[in-house]
Write a structure and sequence with these properties.
The complex is a heterodimer of chains A (155) and B (144). Chain A has helices spanning 15-19, 43-47, 68-94, 98-121, 130-140, 145-154; strands spanning 2-5, 53-56. With 155 residues, chain A is mainly α. Chain A has 3 domains: 1-59, 2-Layer Sandwich (Alpha-Beta Plaits), CATH 3.30.70; 71-124; 125-155, no CATH class. Chain A has a two-stranded antiparallel sheet with strand order 1-2. Chain B has 5 helices and 3 strands. In chain B, strands 2-1-3 form a 3-stranded antiparallel sheet. Chain B is globular. Chain B starts with 6 loop residues before the first helix and ends with a strand. Classes of the chains: A mainly alpha (155), B mainly alpha (144). At the A-B interface, helix 3, helix 4, helix 5 and helix 6 of A face helix 1, helix 2, helix 3, helix 4 and helix 5 of B.
């Protein structure tokens, strides 16, 4: 568990610097050095007058198992949405009108976000979960060399 | 599971999750992996065909998800259903308006996307709050 700063809320009162035993909160990039942060110490979280510091967890519960029938319907929705994203992308490239191109790019982006939401609710919410590890492992079979390299890092 | 056809959005969602955990290297790897699975379709596409496909989704896929999720009381899925069905209606309505008014619809107007739910806003300024998911102004990005 380590501390992180929400820079939008930070009022630069810098009370976190007073209490941090390791200097992890005093960095040039506005973020807290998570490698120097003491696991779960939370002194800076409590000292911050602007509630700008929070703790990021490093262990998570395994997500709840989804009902198979719900999963089947949600997967169909996600796949159709991804297909529509690819349609929008193709239109963005082929259209000759600048407004239409912009609309196509907006649709492409919006459809991706909708598909990602379906992915999240289909159980692919947490990178550390077993379901994600299973998916990544299953992708190894058909992966090319570069994909294998990335997959092995992530599994 | 390896028959899944929507690998890139699953992976970019995981990239975002890793980023929220401040695991930036892992996030980048998910992002790169997502790009490597990204496909391109060479099919000729027009706005009307996208509109038609969105309409099909509103008629078939959305009610199917709602029925099953309501039957087992999966509130997370019902939440995703509610947001994304509204977003889909907005997408469809924008296409429809463009088909009526053409390029004039977008002249001197910006398009903003809510990064949380995908809502598309057409206007001169960033919305103060997302009308669908209530995300704040800073979650909107401008479409260039």
């Amino acid at each position: 568990m380590y501390a992180a700063r929400n820079i939008d809320l930070c009022s630069k009162d810098c009370l976190c610097l007073f209490v941090c035993p390791t200097g992890a909160t005093d960095t040039e990039n506005g973020q807290i050095d998570k490698n120097a942060c003491l696991d779960g110490c939370r002194l800076c979280v409590d000292a911050c007058p602007s509630h700008a510091i929070y703790l990021v967890y490093t262990t998570f519960p395994e997500p709840k198992k989804k009902n198979p029938e719900v999963l089947e319907k949600l997967t169909a929705l996600m796949e159709k949405t991804y297909h529509q994203e690819l349609m929008a992308k193709a239109l963005g490239k082929s259209s000759q009108n600048s407004g239409e191109q912009r609309l196509a790019r907006a649709l492409e982006k919006s459809l991706r976000i909708v598909a990602e939401d379906c992915a999240r609710e289909s159980g692919y919410m947490l990178p550390q979960s077993n379901q994600v590890r299973h998916l990544l492992t299953s992708l190894l079979d058909t992966a090319d060399k570069e994909q294998k390299l990335l997959l092995e890092k992530l599994i | 599971m390896n028959k899944l056809k929507a690998i890139p959005p699953i992976l970019t969602n995981l990239a975002k999750a890793a980023e929220k955990q401040l695991n930036l290297d892992e996030s980048k790897e998910f992002q790169e992996l997502a790009m490597s699975f990204y496909e391109t379709t060479e099919l000729p596409v027009c706005l009307a065909s996208i509109e038609e496909s969105l309409q099909e989704k509103l008629q078939n896929e959305y009610p199917a998800v709602q029925e099953k999720a309501a039957a087992v009381g999966d509130r997370g899925v019902l939440r995703a259903f509610t947001w994304s069905k509204k977003v889909t209606s907005i997408q469809k309505s924008l296409i429809h308006r463009y088909s009526q008014t053409g390029e004039a619809l977008l002249e001197d107007q910006n398009l903003y996307i809510c990064e949380a739910c995908g809502f598309i806003s057409l206007g001169k300024n960033t919305p103060a709050i997302c009308p669908i998911c209530k995300a704040p102004k800073k979650r909107f990005s401008l479409v260039k």
